[in-house]
Amino acid sequence: xxxxxxxxxxxxxxxxxxxxxxxxxxxxxxxxxxxxxxxxxxxxxxxxxxxxxxxxxxxxxxxxxxxxxxxxxxxxxxxxxxxxxxxxxxxxxxxxxxxxxxxxxxxxxxxxxxxxxxxxxxxxxxxxxxxxxxxxxxxxxxxxxxxxxxxxxxxxxxxxxxxxxxxxxxxxxxxxxxxxxxxxxxxxxxxxxxxxxxxxxxxxxxxxxxxxxxxxxxxxxxxxxxxxxxxxxxxxxxxxxxxxxxxxxxxxxxxxxxxxxxxxxxxxxxxxxxxxxxxxxxxxxxxxxxxxxxxxxxxxxxxxxxxxxxxxxxxx
Length: 316
Hints:
Distance between the termini: 20 Å
Structural class: mainly beta
CATH class of the largest domain: Mainly Beta
Number of domains: 2
Low-confidence stretches: 1-21
Number of strands: 23
Helix content: under 10%
CATH topology of the largest domain: Jelly Rolls
CATH architecture of the largest domain: Sandwich
Order of helices and strands: EHEEEEEEEEEEEEEEEHEEEEEEE
Strand content: 35-45%
């Protein structure tokens, strides 16, 4: 008979919080004014650059823009802009200030994650859908990536937008498996929030960049708004009482069951590693039978404490 191993929650803990107040904002950018929190980099040369929207009327730009900057013939139809301005990029290799640029990026550097176990990066993205001619414009080499670097150890892609086809003029979509092809949620001209979570428990510093590659023809574009990077600040909490008094079987075959000799588990919320809520339970058990194999995050609440634990769960 096989022996089931119980792992304490402290083995798999990503974070605890006493509410939203426990989070710390590492960076926040709404693109509403010239006081920006990011650095622009020409990734082809590694040099710092300034935004250039001087040629926006011929649809070559890289910087903060408003819909009123365009003329009706440009056929720019973004909606759900979070203020009056957003960051836009189109036809990067035609910009006068840095001609032939293939990859440009927004960068937030040296973010202090020393007190956090989990960082969440969120941003709104859109691709303009033309009403005349081909509605979509991304090509196989077009991509927008969120990449992170922990303690200077090299950048890793944690979120990707790619074209949905191998030919020209296709729609952008989330690339779920990072194979260079958009196979997830489609990106439209409605700015929509996307989110990804990053394990920073072993790091003290994090660099984040949003890179844009292959927007090198007329009408190849992306819009970005409201970038927020937060840490859970959990390593500042002194009490490990919750961690020491609950356990669960990991990996999970079918039912995730949280056991505690001391506390009453009142709810479990299951999230994907991109931050999407997958399922909820108002008990100490959650049925994961129908979910795909992989890693999930589960937020566990107990009746006796105003505190939650976020655990990493492996589904077989």
